[in-house]
Structure formats: C-alpha cells, structure tokens
Amino acid sequence: MLPTRYASFLKRFVAFIIDGILAKLVALVIVIPLGLLTAGTGILTVVSLRNSDQFFCNGDFGEIFEALAASLSVVGIVFWIFIGVMIVWLYFAVFESSPRQATPGKMMLGMFVTDIHGQRLSFPRALGRTLSKILSKMFCFLGYILALLTERSQGLHDLIAGTLVLEAAYAAPSVAPPLATPPGTKVTPDLTSVSVHVEQPLPA
C-alpha cells in the first residue's frame, strides 16, 4: 500500500487552474469545428430555400426565413455551449475514474482522487463529484474554500460525493546522510588527530 497524506489546498488550487484551462481547450477543439460545420450546413439550406421559387413567390417569405435562420443560430450557439460544458464535465469524470485516478493537472502535482476508503472511484461517483462542483462554485467558491477548514481537506463536492484528494507521503530516510564540507571550503588536514599504529614484532 502507498503511504499517503491529504493534498494541500495550494496544490489543489494550482491543479484546478491547470485543469480548467486544459478542459476548456479540449472543449473548444471539439465544439468549434463541429459548430462551424453545422452552421455552414444551415447557411447552405437557407440559401437554397431563398433561391427556390416554390417558397419565395414574394419578398415576405424572405424576411420569414431570415428571422428563422437568426433564431436557429441562437439555438445552435446555446446547443454547442451545452455540449462544451458536458465535455468539461466528462474531462474530470473520465480522468478521475481512470486507472491513474487523476486529471492531467493533478498528475503533474502528484495527486489523485479516491473514495473515503482509498479506493478508485467508479465513473458515476466521479461524475457526481464533478456535478457537485456546481454547488462548490456558488457564493464565491465557498465550497472550494471549505477544504481549508475540514479535517480531511475536503471541499463541498468531496463531502457530497464521499471522496478524498491524496498525494504520496514519502517517509524520511532511515539512515542519516554523512556530514559534508560546504562547497568551496578548503580543508586543512588536522595532523594532531592522526593516530599512528606500530606493529609489534612477532615472538620468535
């Protein structure tokens, strides 16, 4: 078993910043191309309808379709924002329920997430922990600050999901290191402390 200790608030804060940036980058890389692709399809559809004499017998229908296209673009933006948020949630849930039990930010700082018994999280529990962060972010992130006050350094989302954030606790070496001369110090041998051993002749 690996000896552990509760991760410090400062390390958790740094990992929070790193993972926040990485998760949003992943979401943008996925959402922006798909959003542009679907927006392009919608634009082509509107243009084809506008050029069709079947739907545009007069100018009134053009204004209707323009309004429809505008409303669909707003719906599309809201839809892709929601997809981006879901990707961020999955980023944390998938990584924290993986064999490494940590997001990339936590891995960089040597931390991992467990349940209260020190076991790996299931995906539903990891997802529940992620969704509980919505409550932790309310009222100026008080749920996160709670980790400074609890005995086991648990934030509100940790208390809700029954999880811990741990790091390895390496024991001090059992053998003390040797005394050493500071670098750049000239050592003068002490001749007074030199002992001389004289061998006695063997008896005949």
Describe this protein's structure.
It contains six helices and three strands. The termini are far apart. The chain is elongated and about 115 Å long. The chain is mainly α. Helix 4 crosses helix 5 (138-145). 55% of the residues lie in helices and 7% in strands.
Defining key terms:
204 residues; mainly alpha; three-stranded antiparallel β-sheet; 6 helices; 3 strands; elongated
Euclidean distance between termini CA atoms: 65 Å
Rg, Å, rounded: 32 Å
In this structure, how is the largest beta sheet organized?
3 strands, antiparallel
Helix content: 55-70%
**Range of strand content:** 5-15%
Total DSSP E strands? 3
Query: Structural class from helices and strands?
Result: mainly alpha
Low-confidence regions:
none
Q: Which term fits the overall shape?
A: elongated
Oligomer: single chain
Strand order of the largest sheet: 1-3-2
For the residues shown, what is the average pLDDT?
81
What series of H and E elements makes up the topology? EHHHEHHHE
> Number of helical runs?
6
Reconstruct the topology from this structure:
Layout: E1 4-6, H1 9-50, H2 59-96, H3 104-108, E2 111-115, H4 123-136, H5 138-145, H6 156-161, E3 163-168
Antiparallel strand pairs: 1-3, 2-3
Can I get a quick summary?
The protein is elongated, with a radius of gyration of 32 Å. The protein has 204 residues and is mainly alpha-helical. The protein has helices at 9-50, 59-96, 104-108, 123-136, 138-145, 156-161, and strands spanning 4-6, 111-115, 163-168.
